[in-house]
Amino acid sequence: MYVYDSYDHHIVRERVAQFRRQTERYLAGDLTDEEFLPLRLQNGLYIQRVAPMLRIAVPYGLLSSRQLRKLAHITREYDKGYAHFTTRQNLQLNWPQLEDVPDILAELAEVEMHAIQTSGNCIRNVTSDQFAGVAPDEITDPRPYCEIIRQWSTFHPEFAFLPRKFKIAVCGSAQDRAAILVHDIGLQLVVNDAGETGFRVYVGGGLGRTPVIGSLIREFLPEQHLLTYLEAILRTYNLLGRRDNKFKARIKILVKATGPEEFAKKVEAEWAHVRDGETTLTQTEIERAKSFFTLPQYQADAAADLTALKAEHKAFARWIERNVKDHKRPGYKAVILSLKPTGVAPGDVTDTQLEAIADIADQYSFGEVRATHEQNVVLADVREADLFEVWQKAKTHGFATPNIGTLTDMICCPGGDFCSLANAKSIPIAEAIQRRFEDMDYLYDLGDLTLNISGCMNACGHHHVGHIGILGVDKKGEEFYQVQLGGSASNDASLGTVLGPSFGRDDVPDVIQKILDVYVERRLQEELFLDTYRRIGVQPFKERIYAKAS
Amino acid sequence: MPRLVKNEAIVECHRQFLPKDSDLTAVQNRTDVVPLSLWVSQTEALSALGVDGVWVDSDETLDALTDTLSQLALLAIHFPAFVDGRGFSLGRLARERHQFSGELRAFGYVLQDQAHFLRRCGFDAMDFRQGTDLNSAIESLADFTEHYQASVDQPRPLFRRRT
Q1: Nearest chain A residue to B120, by CA
Q2: What was the ipTM of the complex prediction?
Q3: DSSP 8-state symbol, B147
Q4: What are phi and psi of A122, to 5 degrees?
C-alpha cells in the first residue's frame, strides 16, 4: 500500500496543528457555531444526536495491521470500544469528545491516517473495488490512480467550498464493484485499441433524494490527463452548480439541467485551457504511484485440495461458497470477513475484533485488509492451504457468518439511533430481518440478493440501488418504512421502484417474506431475484403485499 | 477605515466600494471601486476619471473584463458567504487565464481559516469578517507550508518537485 514520505507526513501534521487551533478558537468563542461547522465537517467531525461523531478516512478502503491496532487503541481510549465501517469504506467513531479530537488526529497521523475531507462540501474520500489488484477480471489496478486523486484532492485550494459534497469512485475491472454510476464522478479504467490506459468518464450519478444514474461524458481520457480533466469538471461545477438550494446543489442537478452533452462541452472548453499544463501527470509519477502496489511475495505451494475438509465440515463448505472469492493468482483466494452477524449493527466492530483482524492479516494476508462499501472487511491474499485455519479464527472472533452477498449481508446506515438527520431507525429493522431469515439453507436458495436500508432520504444506506431497498420515513412523528424493488449498483445500474404505501416497523419482516415468496414462486430455474423482478415487473409483488385479507 | 491583510501585513484601505446598481454620477473619487456592470458599460468614462478598481460578485464572470483587466490596479472578488467558493475559481482565473497582476482582494464574508486557500488561488489582499484578529489571520496564511496541487503560488504540483 501507499507509504507516506516526508511531504505527506508534513501536510498531515500541519492539518492536526491547524485543527487544534480551530478547536481552541471555537471553544474560546472566537469562531461561531455556524463558522466552525464547515471547518469541523471537513475534518470528519459531526455533532450528532447523542455525541460528536468522527469519521476517519480510509483511502479507497486500504488498511494495514498497524493502522488497525491504532484504531483499536483509539476506540478504547477515546470511545466506547467499538467503531463502525461506513458505505464509503471509512470508519466512524460514535462517542468521541470534541476536546479529544485534536489528540485523536495526532494519534492517527502517527500511522499515516487522518479525517481530512470525510465530510463537508468538498471532494470526499475516493473509493474503489475491494478486490483491486487481485480480481481475476481486473483490467488495470485502480489503486495507484486512487492515490493520485487522493493527493490532488487533499486541501485543493479551489475546491474546498463547493456547492455540495463531491464523491469520486474508480473501477479497474470488468464488473463494477465500486458503484461508479452512482457517484458524482465515476471513472472506469480501460485500455484502448492502441494499448494505452485511460478512463471512461461518467458524471452526475448519485443517490440522496434525487437518485440519478451517471452520464458518460468522455469515452476515453488518456491517463496522463486525469487530473487536468478532473480539474475542468470541478471548476465547471464550482462556478455553475446551484447554491440557492442545498437539495439542488449536487452536480447531478447541474448535469440534468444543462443536459449531459452540453455539460460535456463546457468541461471540454474548460479543459482546453488547462490540458497539457503542469498538472498533466508524468510517466514518472504514474510509475511512482504504481510502485506502492506491487505483487506481494506469493508462494508456489499455496494451493490446496479442500474437498475432504468441505465434506467433513458443512459450515466450512458454506463459508467457502459465500465468503471466499477467486483470485488472479492460482493457489490464492480473497476472504471476506462478515461484519453482519445477527444482533450486531451492520459494519460495527469492537476494539478486540479490530486487533483480531490485524493478527489474522499479519499471519495470513501480508498484513493488509480492505474495507468494503458493503461494510465488510476483505483479506485479499490468503493461501488456499490456510483457508481452514482462517475460517476457524474468523469463527472465534465472530466474522464467519457465511452470508456474503445474501439477504442478511445488508448495507445499513446508523439511522435514528445515532444520526441527527435520520427520520427513522434502521439498525432495529436490519436486526429484525436478520432474526427472521436466519435459516442458511433458505438464504442460499435465494442466492445473490442485496437489501439496503437508509434511515432517511439522504440514502447513506444506498436503498435506491438495493435489489430490495428500505427507506425510513417520518409520518406525523411516527416511523414508517417504504419498500423499493429492482435497484442495482453494478454495471447494469438501476434505481428501485417504490412498491406502494409504507409499512410500520413490525410489518417489515412479513413484507420481505411476501416479496421473497413471489420471487421463489415465479423464478425460472437458477434465475436471480433481480432478473426475475426485471422480467415480471413490480405488479405481482404489489398484488401480493397489498392484497386485501379475504 | 477597514483594515485588511495584504502580503502578510496589516494595511488600511481608503477606497470606497460603490454598490451594485451605481451609475456614473455615484463616482466621487478616482480611488472608488466600481461594480463590474458599471465598469463594463462605462469603461472609457471611468478610465478618463482615473478609476482603476473594480469589484465582481461571486455569480459574475470575468469574461467581460478580458480586454480591460490590465488597466486595473485592484480587482476585488465578493464573497457573499464564506461557504460560497466560487471566488476561489475566479481568483485563479484572474491570475492564470487573464494574467492579472494588480491587487486581487477577497472581501465580504471571509474567514481567516480560508486565508491559505485564498493565497494559493492568487489573492494577495483579504478583508476578513469583522472581529477577526488580523495578526492571528496572518499566521493562518502559513497553516500549510507544503501542497500537493499546482496553483497560483506554486505552479508546479508536488509530483513534479518531489525529491
Answers
A1: A157
A2: 0.97
A3: -
A4: -145, -175
